[in-house]
């Protein structure tokens, strides 16, 4: 892949951002103030109602989703079903049959490419047109006449495939299909787009790499990861844009809760606006993104509503990292998260000499099923805190600003996000007020850390890996029993140990618990810190 240099990438991304902002102008629900340099409060968009339903939302990683089945998703509280029709096009309907309102997500994708309702057998094509009513009295002409009724149609929503993700527009109807054509889904990094261009089209979400032919930038892009989280869209972004928690919540993996939590300052890079969010920077960055006395790395956070946060980290030695977050609000207290990682390096940089935090993110460049198991460690370390925190705020019966005390500059980005959300009129749930309250706090860790429902059941690569794991376990168990009964104790014990190891692996597809009270120098942290990462980090410190 012939990738442009870093400055050219930045300029192209800035130009594309300006073009996207201009294209979105017709959807701008309220105007924004110009930023005031040095003002700690930052300019905020004028109060108004953000057009939440006139936006694109990602619902799945296409390459990891079974096209032979319909799939349920909520977007802003609205129940939808997405499925792949006979033309290999992904479609989205409201998740109810027009007949008796049974969920279409419980139906079947038939061989003729229609979606069949499992209740009475009505069928629908990709446009939502009813094609079959088995209960109609009379001949085929009468059935065709009744199928043409507008009331017999499923309610269809616009869909689009971009960057390996399936996107759904959050309104239905003829106007929605026209409006959706004027607002493109959020763009990814230029490195990711270069990978797509080299493949001759849209990316399928698979990992890849490129090297500058006319430029000096080399990059690597990993596969998408998708996960349903038991806390809200707003809690996710509040946490993702808060670097102060990293060394504390992620103690042992990216830093120390005792020595790396330090003061730091924020700087504005783009003032807040209704449609384009805001961009803030840390220069220099605090730990774990920096090592005082060794290098002065920079970090920038770019929030692009309603679903995107881009994190950029650059090392002065010529390499960097972009973490691309997308988060869809599904229902109160729940969201669906997508993440991809882009590693870059200039001519003098190296992918093998980065600090620990950088190399941890590189672990995601593994077979998809393995990265889906290991990489969400970060999400699991935050999970209980975010799940409980938002519900405690609601129980306080106060506004978020009234309930929380934030006296230090480190919370500036969080305040910026919450002010943006407040000015936008809050999340645009498509639910009656009584249904918008958060569920109670879940105290059972087996339910909070339920990885089967959060990920595995929706991921084809992980389901395949689970089947292989179970097959190896069965073979190991049978082999161990046969070896021991035959007097070969050594082989039996070896196969038994193999069985135990794969049993641990199998369990991770179903449940992956984490406890901050137990997060000391445990085996995982010793492995990650001292065996996997420490030797290369020592070499980096000596340079």
Automatic annotation (TrEMBL):
Residues 56-168 form the Rieske domain. It is found in: Membrane; Plastid, Chloroplast. InterPro entries: Cholesterol_7-desaturase, PaO, Rieske_2Fe-2S, Rieske_2Fe-2S_sf. The keyword Hydrolase does not apply. Signal peptide: none annotated. Residues 21-39 have a biased composition (Basic and acidic residues). One of its GO terms (molecular function) is 2 iron, 2 sulfur cluster binding. Pfam families: PaO (PF08417), Rieske (PF00355). The keyword Transcription regulation does not apply. Residues 207-216 have a biased composition (Gly residues). GO terms for cellular component: chloroplast; membrane. Residues 1-45, 196-218 are annotated as: Disordered. Keywords: 2Fe-2S, Chloroplast, Iron, Iron-sulfur, Membrane, Metal-binding, Oxidoreductase, Plastid, Transit peptide, Transmembrane, Transmembrane helix. SUPFAM superfamilies: Bet v1-like (SSF55961), ISP domain (SSF50022). This is Rieske domain-containing protein. It comes from Prasinoderma singulare.
């Amino acid at each position: 892949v012939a990738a442009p240099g870093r400055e050219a990438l930045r300029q192209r991304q800035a130009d594309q951002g300006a073009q996207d902002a201009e294209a979105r102008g017709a959807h701008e629900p309220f105007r924004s103030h110009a930023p005031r340099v040095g003002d700690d409060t930052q300019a905020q968009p004028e109060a108004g109602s953000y057009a939440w339903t006139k936006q694109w939302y990602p619902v799945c990683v296409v390459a990891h989703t079974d096209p032979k089945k319909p799939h349920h998703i909520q977007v802003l509280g609205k129940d939808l079903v997405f499925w792949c029709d006979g033309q290999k096009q992904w479609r989205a309907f409201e998740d109810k049959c027009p007949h008796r309102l049974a969920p279409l997500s419980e139906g079947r994708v038939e061989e003729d490419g229609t979606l069949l309702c499992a209740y009475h057998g009505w069928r629908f094509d990709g446009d939502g047109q009813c094609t079959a009513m088995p209960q109609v009295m009379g001949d085929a002409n009468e059935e065709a006449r009744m199928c043409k009724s507008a009331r017999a149609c499923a309610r269809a929503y616009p869909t689009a495939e971009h960057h390996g993700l399936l996107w759904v527009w959050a309104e239905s109807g003829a106007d929605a299909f026209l409006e959706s054509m004027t607002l493109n889904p959020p763009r990814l990094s230029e490195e990711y787009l270069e990978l797509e261009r080299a493949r001759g089209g849209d990316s399928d979400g698979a990992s890849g790499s490129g090297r500058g032919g006319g430029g000096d930038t080399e990059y690597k892009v990993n596969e998408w990861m998708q996960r349903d989280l038991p806390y809200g869209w707003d809690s996710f972004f509040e946490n993702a844009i808060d670097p102060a928690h990293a060394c504390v919540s992620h103690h042992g993996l990216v830093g120390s809760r005792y020595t790396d939590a330090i003061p730091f300052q924020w700087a504005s890079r783009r003032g807040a606006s209704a449609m384009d969010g805001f961009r803030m920077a840390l220069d220099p960055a605090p730990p774990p993104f920096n090592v005082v006395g060794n290098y002065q790395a920079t970090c920038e956070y770019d929030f692009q509503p309603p679903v995107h946060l881009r994190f950029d980290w650059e090392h002065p030695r010529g390499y960097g990292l972009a973490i691309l977050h997308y988060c869809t609000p599904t229902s109160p207290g729940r969201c669906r998260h997508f993440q991809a990682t882009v590693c870059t390096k200039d001519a003098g940089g190296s992918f093998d000499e980065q600090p620990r935090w950088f190399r941890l993110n590189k672990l995601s460049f593994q077979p998809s099923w393995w990265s889906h198991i290991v990489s969400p460690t970060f999400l699991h370390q935050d999970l209980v805190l975010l799940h409980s925190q938002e519900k405690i705020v609601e129980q306080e019966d106060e506004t978020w600003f009234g309930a929380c005390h934030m006296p230090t500059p480190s919370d500036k980005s969080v305040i910026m996000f919450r002010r943006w959300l407040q000015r936008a009129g809050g999340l645009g749930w498509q639910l009656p007020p009584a249904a918008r309250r958060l569920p109670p706090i879940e105290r059972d860790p087996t339910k909070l850390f339920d990885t089967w429902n959060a990920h595995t059941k929706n991921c084809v690569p992980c389901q395949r890996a689970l089947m292989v794991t179970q097959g190896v376990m069965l073979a190991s168990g049978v082999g161990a029993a046969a070896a021991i009964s035959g007097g070969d104790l050594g082989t039996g014990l070896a196969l038994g140990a193999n069985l135990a190891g794969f049993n641990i692996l199998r369990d991770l597809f179903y449940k992956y618990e984490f406890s901050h009270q137990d997060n000391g120098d445990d085996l995982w942290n010793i492995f990650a810190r001292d065996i996997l990462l420490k030797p290369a980090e020592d070499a980096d410190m000596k340079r």
